[in-house]
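Now for one specimen:
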Amino acid sequence: METLFSGYGIEIIERDKKLFIQYDAGEIVDLMIEVEVTEDESIKAQKSDTDAYEVIIKLQNEKRPYNKLNY
């Protein structure tokens, strides 16, 4: 696992040649999740906090499968 980007409340990692975005999806309690993303989504999320937010909203609207992370 390699962290490619950290900022705007997200981390983008590469694992097994796949890209994942990790972010806190919790409201009152932290809920860190990880979702696989495309290279284009990864690039957009790194541009600004607004772009990162737009990518997260897109992923949530698409109801992509995600993994809960234990920290």
In short: The chain has a mean pLDDT of 94. The beta strands are 2-7, 10-15, 18-24, 32-37, 66-68. The two ends are 16 Å apart (CA to CA). The helical segments are 39-45, 49-62.
